[in-house]
Write the structure tokens for this entry.
Amino acid sequence: MTQESPWEPGLLGFLCRWCSYAGADLAGTSRRKYPANIRVIRVPCSGRVDPLFILKALRLGFDSVLVSGCHPGDCHYQTGNYYARRRMAITKKFLEYMGVEPQRVQVGWVSASEGQKFAEVVTEVTRELKEIGPNRLFADESQGHGTEATP
Amino acid sequence: MNHKDMEQKLRREARALLEQGKVGCIIGFEAGSLKFTTTPLITSEPDATSRLVINPFIVNNLSVFLTEVKGRVGVVVKGCDSRSLVSLMQDNKVARDDVVILGIPCSGIIDLGKVEKLVGKDRDEIDDINRDGDRVVVTVDGSKKEFPISEVLFDNCLGCEFPTPQEYDILLGEPTLPPSDKYQAASLARIKQLKDMPATQRWEFWKSEFDRCIRCYACRNICPACFCQRCFVEESEPTWVLPVPRWQDNLMFQVIRNIHVAGRCTDCGECERACPVNIPLRSLTREMYNLVDELFHYKSGMDKDASPFLAAYEATDTEDFIR
């Protein structure tokens, strides 16, 4: 019998190709320590992130989604992150109204020079997720598990 | 101006528009097959304009037809409908020059379901329903019963902010004032009730509501703000939501639908009325409407020259949720 390992939060990160992804890279090359709970998907811009991606990730059982892009004014495409900001604001607040914990949708600005900040954000989010526990939002009691295979 | 006078004026104007060839067809309301109810009338016959009606039961938001009808069209709109129409213009779905807007200053639509429940009779057993200021008089078996409008109007009408159309060519009556603030509470009662619950209970509530959903898409099809050529639920590569009506997929569909119509929804309440299983959808759409207003001070469908809400930004937009 193998001993069951303690639950570890799963965090899905959508990182913008110009800032946050480079920030994550810098965190790695400068040997910053942060929890290995994040899985990263590189996107061209935070403006690329459709609220559908967030819902789908939560539906698949990720404990939280982090959308991270350039600071306002720094977008490679000038304005992408401004559109993202509006979209994420309503997505996050609306999901909170429906009963989703605020920690399940995370938004951050991390620039290419902020490796330290990236490590801090991931550490902080992971700590918060350990407090609120696993995502059981879409769990199907009749099937006894929270996730389903991608259709 | 009462409904009868507005109705006469509408018939005259609609006939003239058709006869002079200013529009190819008129979209309005006519009497429905069930007592008191109305149904959309789309006609190009001048004589058919005599069937047009205006009464306190004209529920439909007729702007939904505009993306489907070709040519120049005359359309009858209430306050909320006119804003849906303006919103379609913002999205370049309808050209201002292609519509002649016949505006009705609205004083609220009576919910027949509420009336039936109050008097305990079916609609065809009710003799008459009359609006009299802040009261509605219902005549059943020769006896009259009075109810305050807070008990018989649709919830969205009680919370209406702009009952007079925002954009029109012909206004069929004098502008009306929104219902007094005291009715706001009744309009938002269910949302308040939900907000007072703990988050987990709220999620459980929506879970059980969407367990009933049969995914008929009536809410989507009746919504003037839902105009995608191809809806994400019908995408198969990738499949975002399964077509099987399971609560998880139903809920996801509705959340995304609400995000798509943010800044377009005018709280006309059509989705909730169309729902065959009575899911309180307006508690979602109205909350989104409020969020957009509170966070971004944006009200849908007020200015046809403004950028659509989600295709615009302000440098000063809220950031308090960002790390």
Notes: The CA atoms of residues 10 and 37 of chain A lie 5 Å apart. The longest strand of chain A covers residues 11-16.
